[in-house]
Design a protein that fits this description.
single chain; alpha+beta; 5-stranded parallel β-sheet; 19 strands
Length: 394
């Protein structure tokens, strides 16, 4: 009997196990998991489980992955977001798609999704062993794990880089190159400490302009101000773009925030049309009053100054506040970390099968690969797709 070991019981590992048994029901499959399967799935999507992002155009979908773009063409052509919906339907999880493209279970419950997947493991007679794997010993074309011989191994464990049981360290011990892992989808620390006074203020559809590798990028999403800086989907996108670099006080990243939601602002016309109103009553059309007050304070402009009294210099300063407010990002905050950028070098993996090019019968899927996406279901989609392919091909 062919024996398959799966290291890691997260979304990709569980998907890989189900895929193995669906395509090769005669195989014996063992998941090695430190805690319990799908523990990391429960908090996703704020507990609602953002299963994926509905996008049928491959190029549009892949743009949401800062790392792994070319590699993912092969992955998503084999298992798409539509396949994700069909898979969950097949195990009794009905889904719906929000207006913004995010896919959720009808129950809005990560727990229900975890229960449905766990039930599949039981039905397919997948064995789960609560064990920390610190070593995989190659023996010819087979592997020894905890004194047991396995014909195939799928590494589906992410984890912290310096932990001997992390997927990164296990891959490294099996002669694979690791792209240095860094936190992505993180909250960000900023130099402008005066903005801590608006902690908790959130905004919809804010655009951030950044420069990255000689390119000018515009990123749009929701934003949340915190005691230390910024958080929310927009901050997560920025942290993902720069994940393989290092934020620091000596090497900060300058971000320009545009609160206009893409609209052209004729500020002079607005001032003329509202000449008797206070300036605060104009700026708060673009942002909450609390934030407008703080930003106006920085240019020493009284809130009660009437629009008819605004001079040219002040008008230009107000325009900057509305469309190009500068933030200085100095650090990615570890307490906001959701996913890891970096991992097994994709050049060493066959994108059609996810088998190692270096070691036969060794496969990888999920976060251990150097693939990561923005917030919005993209990282779980990577788990479902790579788990499916690795399991199918063992």
């Amino acid at each position: 009997m062919t024996k398959v070991a799966i290291i890691g019981g997260g979304p990709s590992g569980v998907m890989a196990a189900i895929s193995v048994k669906r395509f090769h029901p005669e195989y014996e499959v063992v998941i090695f998991e430190k805690y319990f399967p799908l523990k990391t799935l429960l908090p996703t999507g704020g507990g609602r489980c953002n299963l994926g992002f509905y996008e049928t155009d491959m190029k549009s979908l892949i743009k949401n992955y800062p790392r792994g773009e070319k590699f993912l063409y092969s992955i998503f052509s084999q298992f798409s977001t539509e396949d994700t919906i069909e898979f969950f339907k097949s195990i009794g999880v009905k889904t719906y798609t929000q207006d913004d493209g995010r896919i959720f279970p009808v129950s809005d419950s990560s727990k229900e999704v975890a229960q449905a997947l766990t039930l599949q493991l039981k039905k397919l007679k997948v064995t789960v062993k609560h064990s920390i794997i610190k070593e995989i010993k190659p023996q010819g074309e087979k592997f020894i794990i905890n004194n047991t011989e396995f014909d195939k191994v799928i590494i589906a464990a992410g984890g912290r880089y310096n932990s001997p049981s992390s997927g990164f360290e296990l891959a490294k011990s099996l002669c694979h190159k690791i792209i240095d892992p860094n936190p992505a989808l993180s909250s960000l620390e900023i130099k402008e400490k005066y903005l801590s006074s608006v902690s908790g203020v959130s905004l919809k559809n804010v655009t951030a302009r950044i420069s990255f590798e000689d390119k000018k990028l515009n990123l749009t999403d929701d934003l949340l101000f915190t005691h230390k800086g910024i958080s929310g989907p927009l901050a997560y996108k920025i942290s993902s773009i720069y994940a393989n670099g290092k934020f620091s006080k000596s090497n900060p990243v300058i971000v320009e925030l545009d609160f206009s939601n893409g609209a052209e602002i004729n500020l002079q016309q607005m001032l003329n049309d509202n000449s008797k109103k206070f300036i605060l009553n104009i700026t708060d059309k673009f942002m909450p009053k609390a934030l407008a007050k703080v930003l106006l304070e920085q240019i020493n402009l009284p809130f009660e100054k009437r629009c008819c009294d605004i001079n040219k210099t002040e008008r230009e300063q107000i325009k900057v506040i509305l469309t190009a407010a500068k933030l200085t990002v100095t650090a990615a905050l570890k307490d906001g970390e959701i996913v890891t950028a970096g991992g097994v070098d994709l050049n060493e993996i066959n994108p059609k099968t996810l088998e190692s090019k270096i070691m036969p019968n060794l496969y990888f899927c999920g976060e251990v690969l150097n693939i990561d996406g923005f917030c919005g279901g993209f990282n779980l989609q990577n788990c479902w797709s790579t788990g499916f392919i690795a399991g199918k091909n063992v």
